[in-house]
Amino acid sequence: MPSSAREAFFALRAFNVEIASIKDASQLIGGRSRGGSTSRSSGISGYSGLDGGSTSGSDPSLASRLRMQWWKDAILEIYEKKQQHSKINDANRNAHEQQQRNQNNDSVISSLTSSRKLNPTLRSLSNAIHTHGLTYRFLRRIMEARESDLDMIQYERLVDVA
Fold first, then answer.
1. What is the pLDDT of residues 28-55, one digit of tens each?
2. At what angle do helices 136-151 and 62-87 cross, to 10 degrees?
3. Which helix (H) or strand (E) holds 143?
4. What residues does each domain of the chain span?
């Protein structure tokens, strides 16, 4: 790998690992906090989990979908900011940034925005996008493939297939 592309390569690799781990985390949560069996509830009386009643780790849960959406929104925000920065000249930039700060007064929105700013994978990926001109379509296809992977059922044993 040439040294000029090495940082972008590792950023893409880290991004791929992050979104691939969403499914793995869903399975771990399903096995650990729900007891791994369909007979136990998640701790709330009469409630069998966020994923519509199934407690197996192979079904995509609401938490997994939310994590995937966080990544989609974060990537889209990078490209929107890139587009805005190319349109806004230096004279108008300060007024525009102040307007955005006023719109982000809601604590939930500001919390999500700050978590995006602090995420090292996202910061590295943003740098790779700006430095190497990665297209939104390229990253969107990676996310769509990982999201479709959430719906795939992967059996642990050969006996479970039949």
1. 655 554 444 443 333 333 333 344 444 4
2. 170
3. helix 136-151
4. 3-161
